[in-house]
Design brief:
single chain; mainly beta; eight-stranded parallel beta sheet; 1 helix; 11% helix; globular
């Protein structure tokens, strides 16, 4: 996917924050634009548009974003509209996403809830109406 390219297009006006491979960051990040993690981030990521974890990147904390692409490791819960887990990435925590793609070799160790709230409430009604 194009998000993992290191020469992403910065001319679009999108705000990017980067935790590079040599960096270690500890604390909560509230990001309005996009975040790319190639180093280590210990803490939560809130309100981001896009969170990209590179192949050598690691987040130890919860992640909340519109789009999350994990190529490295996330040790925490993930809440996203769209989640993509690349091989050989891993997520150790619970996932709540509207849509999710997992490449062969991607690993999840936690509970997954996929879909929208409307889908979740419609499922019990369908089961009850069959009785």
């Amino acid at each position: 996917m194009g998000f993992l390219k290191k020469d992403s297009d910065f001319a679009s006006g999108e705000h990017y924050s980067v935790v590079s491979a040599e960096c270690y960051f500890q604390g909560t990040l509230s990001v309005q634009g996009s975040l790319r993690v190639d180093g280590t981030l210990e803490g939560s990521v809130d309100n981001a548009r896009n969170v990209i974890v590179g192949t050598d990147g690691k987040i130890v904390g919860d992640v909340s974003a519109q789009i999350v692409v994990c190529g490295g490791v996330i040790e925490g819960n993930v809440c996203a509209d769209m989640l993509e887990i690349l091989a050989p990435a891993s997520i150790l925590g619970d996932i709540r996403a509207k849509k999710m793609i997992v490449e062969e070799g991607g690993r999840i160790d936690g509970r997954c809830v996929i879909g929208t709230a409307e889908q979740e409430t419609a499922e019990p009604q369908k089961k009850e109406s069959k009785k």
